[in-house]
Structures are given as C-alpha cells and as structure tokens.
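A further point concerns the way the authors explain their paired sequence and structure data. Since the whole study asks how a given chain folds, the encoding of that fold should be made plain. A single example would do more here than another paragraph of explanation. An entry of this sort, consisting of the sequence and the corresponding backbone structure tokens, reads as follows:

_____
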Amino acid sequence: MSSKFSETISMIFNAPMTCGYSLIIYFALNPAKATIFSILGVIIFLYIMPWIPVFLYWLTTNRSPSRLSGRKRIPFIIIGLISYISGAIYFSMLSAEEYIFLIALHMTYAIFSILLVIGNIKSKPSVHVGGYVAPFLLLALSVNIIFLGLLIITPVIGWSRIKLGIHTLNQLIQGFIIGAISSILALYLTFVVFF
C-alpha cells in the first residue's frame, strides 16, 4: 500500500507536473499573459525540449532516468539547460517587461540544471524535491508570499523518494537547497540582466 502511495506521490509531484501547477496558478492570476505565444513558449521550452529525451529513454529502457546514478543523469540535465536558456531568451525577445515571471522561471530551471550537474558529480540531489521547491518559491517571491505555504508538501515528496529507495535524506536536502538557491538567484539575475 505505502509503495503504491509513494509512487503516486512521486508521479503527481515530478518536476514537469509541478512546473505545470505553478503555471496554472500564475496564468489564473494573470490571464492576459496566457497568449498563444506564451503558451507555445512554455510548451516548447519547459516540456517538449527538456522532457522528450527523458520520455524516449523511459520508452526504450522501461526505466526512469531518476534511477540512474548521478553522472549518468548529466546528459539529460544538459539538454534541459539548453532548453531553459532558450526559453528565457525567447520570452525576453517577446517582451521582457511583460513576461518577467516566465523569464525568471526559465532562468530558475537553467540555474537548477547547472547546480544539478555539479551536484551529480559526487551525489544525486533530488530533482523531485528541488523541482517542487523552485517554482513555488519563485511564485512566492515574485507574485505573492502566500505561496510559501505550498512548500509544506515538500516533506511528503521527500518521504516518497526515500520510500522508493531512490534518494537519501542528504540528497533530499541537497535538492531543497538547490531549488531554493535557483529561484532566488534566477529572480535576481532576471532583474539584473533584463532590466
């Protein structure tokens, strides 16, 4: 029972799903920003480019890359990094002032990817935990501080990753720190670079 529950938690709170939840909240609060160009950019740079290689790997091996050792996850992360940087450039070219949050979100995932590559050299930081913390902390810092309350779910996500035998407590903490640093640094850099 608890194994199925932890698998469900991991599936519901994986990085692409979590990113989607934060985008739903953002666009619900800012419906004028949900243009065809912004939705298309989000789909291409936050979903198609970074996650197609992960999906293809899963299809061909019937294994998730999250079960790979740290160094073997690096090529997937680098593909994501390229996609996220491309997305930040795309949204800045559309309108940097109009799409501050979307630029910062792409910058968050770009920084997150860089820190994951570094972290994966010696360890295996949790992408699930960091991928949950990063967009919701960014939402709290840039839209409304009330969204910090959503971080209360983080321990449940961490528990599921430990229960599945994928991460240790240390790796969960690393993921949390990487996610938090990514959001804070991305928001700062977005304002420095684009304004």
Notes: DSSP finds eight helices and no strands in the chain. The radius of gyration is 16 Å. The first helix runs from residue 2 to 12.
